[in-house]
Structure prediction request, 261 residues.
Amino acid sequence: MAEVKPAARPLSPHLQIYRWSWTMAMSVAHRVTGTGLYLGTVLIAAWLVAAASGPAAFDTAQWIAGSILGRLVLFLYSFSLMHHMVGGLRHFVWDMGKGYEPQTRMAMAKFTLVISTALTVLIWIVVLATR
Amino acid sequence: MQSNSSMRTPLGRVRGLGSAKSGTGHFWLQRLTAVANVILTVIFVFVVVALVGKPYPAAMALLTQPCVAILMLLFILSACVHMRIGMQVIIEDYVHEEGVKILAVMANTFFAIAVGAASVYAVLKLSFGG
Prediction:
């Protein structure tokens, strides 16, 4: 039998090959926001542990959270949370076997961005109004 | 009836666990925790927004309300299970070297448990009297 060598065939094309579309962007965003939330849980845990450590540690944590950098991280975290949540609702629709038509997919992808942005802005309006 | 023309053994097909050896367990748990997370995330956001600008005693008074503390614990547990499975999927998608993959999946589990344990400890400590 002839020697069988694995040919150096091209693998399936990756991100840079495709033209960006709304559905692709929101799919990538779902992963990115999920990863962001994953890393962000360290901050939530640290904040809770600071609270459990006493007033001094809590005040330090609050000061960090209220700083420019802290607020930027919190803003990104809140947006990631809303985006991942709304993106997840989209997955529930697909899990039920609905929403696979091209127009519906595109509409849901845009809807994800609009609603998650609106929810994030709403949260921050309430935060800034009540502090 | 389907003939056994595939590579899968009849036993393997009956077990229905696929190449991951655990069937749809992760898939279903990811959906289950996702449903819980939608509800618990909304509550979590309300709690955090209510805590903004509060001094320590007032913030702790809210955080240690039994209902609030229990919901925080549920949010932590559900989120940690969900994020562990989600990150495992990402690792399995992008890390192809078997040894590194196993270590990464293991580290991922350690991370989720450590974050969950620290958060649960903090909420319980506060609730049971600081």
Q: What stands out?
A: Helices of chain A lie at 22-53, 55-66, 68-95, 102-130. Residues 22-53 of chain A form the longest helix (32 residues). Chain A has four helices and no strands.
